[in-house]
Write a structure and sequence with these properties.
The complex is a heterodimer.
Chain A: H1 23-36, H2 42-55, H3 58-70, H4 72-80, H5 82-87, E1 98-103, E2 108-113, H6 122-125, H7 135-140, H8 145-151, E3 161-166, E4 171-176, H9 188-192, H10 197-201
Parallel strand pairs in A: 1-4, 2-3
Helix pairs in contact in A: 3-4
Chain B: H1 24-35, H2 42-50, H3 54-59, H4 62-76, H5 82-86, H6 106-112, E1 131-134, E2 158-168, H7 171-174, E3 183-191, H8 192-195, E4 205-211, E5 215-217
Antiparallel strand pairs in B: 1-2, 1-5, 2-3, 3-4
The chains are: A alpha/beta, B alpha+beta.
């Protein structure tokens, strides 16, 4: 058990207090210890960081949205079984094992939060932004989503209902924002450039061309 | 903390900003690499973060919670000793070293993920449109003080089934080494007025993913 008060043979209940308090030193101490015990390869850590810094990020999700805007069959497949639809584009992976796509319309605006931790569709959007992991967003998005949206500069008409998805399980939600007016002649690449990360969390709108 | 008051404004940030401190990427990577050893599952690690002392949980930044929980788990699971953690003891080679995540295997490991759906489990008791009430407490029913994914703000409230997600590992069991105990998982929609005394808009809803044992017919 991770938190067993009956067993003191392993020292304090919270062994992390044995590490230096300063976070940068904590990381270094943990990495060094695990490396010396043969449990962590620093080159593997570099590879993980490279993946989320350079290979996986919100441009993946933007490609998905641009296809949904332009290919009716893909849009239907995405709304039916997003996990399979995005896997066909090579966007399956850790923290994206079960994807559901939710589409914004004139009557419903979708917004995603994880009040319990910070669940987020990594293969489609990368590592969550700082605000998504903040206490303020986690506390407020479910109770006053419209005030939170206003802090992102988004004001919805009263006839649009807000549906906030609290990611309490292993299902990860991708918001398909509304396609902006005036984007008719654009190809998929140009359309994807209009799709911001925040619009795929539901805290923004796709930008106008 | 869903619904809590007093947290202040949400501060947007540019899209290219992945890390906020020089040590953040290392904290993420060492946590993922340690998880790949297989000494615990994702529910155990979430519980370890939640089990930090409340003042620490409140005071630690996001990745500080990860680091503290990682250190606690490494000791709780006998992967490292308290002496090794404090630096008092010379690190010994671990029997788990054979499971070390190799750099060449990182892309495949991250692409493979860890699906939470499982075959079997009880038959679905609810279908889309059914009215359900959540259980009246947001506590683990099997382990006192244990892990659960039932947020306090939605306990004892009436909503309706929006969709079925299939059958998923039950975190309340999985976080405590009680097996997967898979159950039907549902997206359940709650009117804002069923959750909050001062809803912003009568048409707004909050949708939560909830396991069958969290629900009863309403």
């Amino acid at each position: 058990m991770p938190h067993d008060h009956s067993d003191h043979s392993h020292g304090p209940d919270h062994p992390h207090t044995l590490l230096p308090p300063e976070p940068a030193l904590r990381v270094r101490a943990l990495e060094t210890l695990l490396e010396r015990k043969g449990l962590v390869d620093p080159a593997a850590l570099d590879a993980i960081i490279d993946t989320y810094e350079n290979r996986i990020g919100p441009r993946g999700g933007a490609q998905v949205v641009a296809r949904a805007w332009t290919e009716p069959e893909f849009r239907a497949a995405l709304l039916e079984d997003a996990t399979a639809a995005v896997a066909d584009m090579g966007l399956y992976g850790r923290q994206g094992e079960h994807i559901v796509a939710v589409e914004n319309t004139g009557t419903v605006h979708n917004m995603v939060v994880c009040t319990l931790c910070s669940c987020y569709p990594w293969p489609l959007l990368g590592i969550p932004p700082g605000w998504y992991k903040s206490d303020a967003y986690r506390a407020r998005a479910v109770r006053e989503p419209r005030k939170v949206l206003a802090e992102f500069g988004v004001t919805l008409p009263r006839e649009t209902a807000v549906r906030v998805w609290d990611s309490t399980a292993e299902v990860r939600y991708l918001v398909v924002p509304r396609r902006p007016e005036g984007a008719e002649g654009l190809d998929k690449e140009a359309l994807a450039a209009l799709v911001t990360r925040d619009s795929m969390i539901g805290c923004g709108l796709a930008v106008n061309p | 903390m869903g619904g809590r008051f007093g947290d202040g404004a949400v501060v947007p940030e540019p899209e290219g900003e992945v890390w906020h401190e020089e040590w953040h990427p290392r904290a993420l990577a060492v946590t993922l690499a340690a998880g790949a050893l297989g000494a615990w599952n994702i529910d155990v690690s979430r519980h370890a973060r939640e089990a930090l002392r409340p003042p620490d949980y409140a005071r630690f930044s996001y990745y500080e919670k990860w680091l503290a929980a990682l250190a606690d788990l490494l000791v709780a699971r006998d992967v490292v000793s308290p002496g090794e953690l404090s630096g008092a003891a010379e690190p010994s080679q671990s029997p788990l070293a054979a499971k070390k995540l190799q750099a060449a295997d990182v892309p495949a490991a991250l692409a493979r993920g860890g699906p939470a759906d499982r075959p079997g489990g009880p038959d679905p008791a609810f279908g889309p449109g059914d009215a359900v009430r959540t259980r009246p407490f947001s506590e683990n029913r099997m382990v006192e003080g244990g892990h659960t994914r039932m947020p306090a703000y939605a306990a004892g409230r009436v909503g309706r089934i929006l969709r079925r997600h299939g059958t998923h590992v039950l975190p309340d069991a999985s976080a405590h080494d009680l097996g997967d105990r898979p159950e039907p998982l549902y997206a359940v929609a709650f009117p804002a007025a069923a959750l909050w005394a001062h809803p912003e808009h009568p048409g707004d809803e909050v949708v939560l993913d909830l396991w069958q044992s969290y629900l009863e017919p309403a």
